[in-house]
Write a structure and sequence with these properties.
Shape: rod-shaped
Radius of gyration: 26 Å
Number of helices: 4
Order of helices and strands: HHHH
Helix content: over 70%
């Protein structure tokens, strides 16, 4: 398989600069895209942690309820659990 264009060392010896190589290879765009992806991952992790802690508190509160209140809150708690774990399992919340 033959590469198109000159090799990097041949290109540099012909008068190109390291900055030109960086621009030609798209490192600036790549770094920018990776920074954006990292920011999105951090935001997702933060949101997930908040949701998980909220769900844990709702579960603790549910355990303390009397039976009549548990019957009323069961569907809501179950929906919260499925909406939290469903996307991680590749399932649509329902």
């Amino acid at each position: 398989m033959e590469k198109s264009g000159p090799t990097t060392s041949a290109w540099l010896s012909a008068g190109g600069t390291g900055a030109d190589v960086e621009t030609d290879l798209g490192f600036t765009t790549l770094v920018s895209n990776l920074d954006n992806a990292a920011s999105e991952i951090v935001a997702y992790q933060r949101d997930s942690t908040v949701q998980r802690k909220d769900l844990a508190q709702k579960t603790k509160d549910f355990r303390k309820m009397d039976d009549a209140a548990k019957l009323a809150e069961f569907k809501s708690l179950l929906k919260g659990i499925y909406s939290h774990i469903g996307p991680r399992l590749g399932e649509a919340p329902g």
